Amino acid sequence: MMTEFGFGDYSSSLYIDIVSLFCSSSASVHTLCRGDQDAALDLFSSITENPFDCACEVTFMKDKYLLPARSRFLLSDITRMHPLVNSGEKYDLIVLDPPWENKSVKRSNRYNWLASSQLKQLPVPLLAAPGCLVVSWVTNRAKHRQFIKEELYPLWGIEVMAEWFWVKVTRSGEFVFPLDSQHKKPYEVLILGKLNSCREVEESSSAVNTLPDQKLLLSVPSTLHSHKPSLSAVLKPYIPEHPRCLELFARSLQADWSCWGNEVIKLQHCQYFTRETQ
Which of 9, 155, 234, 258 has the smallest set of CB atoms within 10 Å of its CB? Predict the structure, then answer.
């Protein structure tokens, strides 16, 4: 049985002072050593980094987790993101998968959700490098899409560049839901934007391909609830070589990425993996 952990509802952080909160504490990064792989780790108070070129198995709250090669993560809620901000790292790509508020989620005690107004408290401008590509997963509700385009991105100084669609299909290539369904759609939306940057940044990124304003991504969805596909390969042509990448509200890790969330290693539990035998 997997131990459930986290900091509870993301919404516990209403109306915090973003500047004083994120700049009040010194950065703390714990880099794994060989001996840590078999030790019980304290993952709550600092960024944890696997510096090795292979996955590491670590123990947390008596359960085993696999950390991908060269991955970094911070396990916290929105009120405890200062280690991430104060590390000084600036990212070329930031992907967000917020737990959007909706009626069915609010009626259920199973899933956390975050009000749109609270997303404005995320320190994205403090984490973004000049010209950073910011990508947000959003539900099909027009209200949420409008909020990102007209409120959230402008607040962060991000110019909306594109709107892509992830189309969910079966193994035989059919939509997982009818396209005209009134309840569930067979697609989700990605809104892409770039941090407003000066001419020097634009000239230095001239080797990066132009971002298409529309694009369809097709894949068979995971059987795990709300588990999105990795965007690393899809976004590679539109970000610098050797990019610094960050995922916010992550529930799993990726090699060469930093990740944050209150369930950031949930899907790294060993129960989700099969050990291959030689």
Answer: 155
- pLDDT classification of 202: cutoffs 50, 70, 90: low
Q: Which two tokens stand for residue 221?
A: 């969805």
**% of the chain with per-residue pLDDT over 70:** 78
Radius of gyration of the chain (CA): 19
d(CA 111, CA 240): 35
Is the confidence at residue 16, as pLDDT, over 80? no
Tokens for 201? 């940044």
Biggest CA–CA distance in the chain, Å, is: 55
Instruction: Let me know: does 165 contact 189? Beta carbons within 8 Å.
Output: yes
The confidence score (pLDDT) of residue 192 equals: 98
Distance of alpha carbon 171 from alpha carbon 189, whole angstroms: 21
Of 110, 58, 96, the C-alpha closest to 265 is: 58
With left for phi above 0 and alpha for psi between -120 and 50, is residue 6 left, alpha or beta? left
**Which residue do the tokens 């396990």 mark?**
75
DSSP 99: -
Cβ atoms within 10 Å, residue 218:
12
Residue partners of 140: CB distance under 8 A and separation at least 6: 185, 187, 188, 189
